Amino acid sequence: MKWTYSIPKKFKASLLLTGVIVIILFNNLSERTNSRQLKSAFESIYEDRLMAESYIMELSEELHGIENKLDNHGKIAPQNMDEYIKNLDQICLRYLDTKLTEEEREHFVKFEILTWNIGQGLRAGNNVENQILAAFEELKILSEIQVKEAKILMGQTGRIFSSVAISSQFEIAMLIIAALFVQAIMFASKTIKNSNFPSHLN
C-alpha cells in the first residue's frame, strides 16, 4: 500500500474515481440499449411469430371448411363458399400486418394467388381440389418459417442476456475497485495524520 502515501494531492484520486463513474454510466447506458433490444425481440416473437402462426391455423381451418363442403366433383354451391372466401380475405389482411421476411412474403403471395384462384374457380363451378392442396402446402411452408424465425429471435435474446450478465459483472467489479481505492486513500490519510503527532517518551 506504499503507493497511497505518494499521492501529493487528492486530484489524482478524484480523477480516477471520476473515470470509474464515467465507465459505470456508459455501462448503464449499454444495459438500457440491451433492454430495449430484448423488449423488441420478445415483442417480435409474440406479434410477428406467434400471432402469425395463429393466423395460419385460422386460414387452414377456413380451407378445411371449403374442402369439407366440396362434392364428389370438387365443386361447391356458390352460396356455401362466400363466407369462407370473405373470412380468408380478412385473415390475410391481419397476417399482412405482421413483419414478413422476404421468404415469407414470397410464399404468402403464392398463397393469396391460390386462394383467389380457388374463389374464382368455385364461382365458375370448376374443380378446385388441386388449388386447395397447393394452398395447404404454402401454409405448411409459412408455418415452418415461423418456427425458424422464432429460433433466430430466441438466439438473439440469449446473446443479449449473456451480454447483460457480463455487463453487470463488470459494473460490480468496477464498484468494488472504486470502494477499495477509497478505503486505501482513507487508510493512507489516517496513517499520515497519525504520523504527524510527536511521540513522548516517559
> What's the total number of strands?
0
Q: Segments where pLDDT lies below 50 for 5+ residues?
A: none
The whole-number mean of residue pLDDT values reads 75
Mind telling me the C-alpha Rg? 34 Å
Named CATH topology: f41 fragment of flagellin, N-terminal domain
Tally of separate domains: 1
Report the CATH C-level class.
Mainly Alpha
Strand proportion, as a percent range, falls in: under 5%
* Distinct helical segment count: 4
Distance between the termini: 32 Å
The CATH architecture can be given as Up-down Bundle
Sheet with the most strands, sense and barrel status: none
The class by helix and strand makeup works out as mainly alpha
What's the overall geometry? rod-shaped
Helix content: over 70%
SSE succession = HHHH
Label this structure with key terms.
mainly alpha; rod-shaped; f41 fragment of flagellin, N-terminal domain; 202 residues; 4 helices; single chain
In short:
The protein has 202 residues and is mainly α.
Describe the structure.
The two termini are 32 Å apart. The chain has one domain: f41 fragment of flagellin, N-terminal domain (Up-down Bundle), CATH 1.20.1330. Helix content is 81%, strand content 0%. The longest helix is centred in the last third of the chain and has 67 residues. The chain is mostly helical and 202 residues long. α1 runs antiparallel to α4.
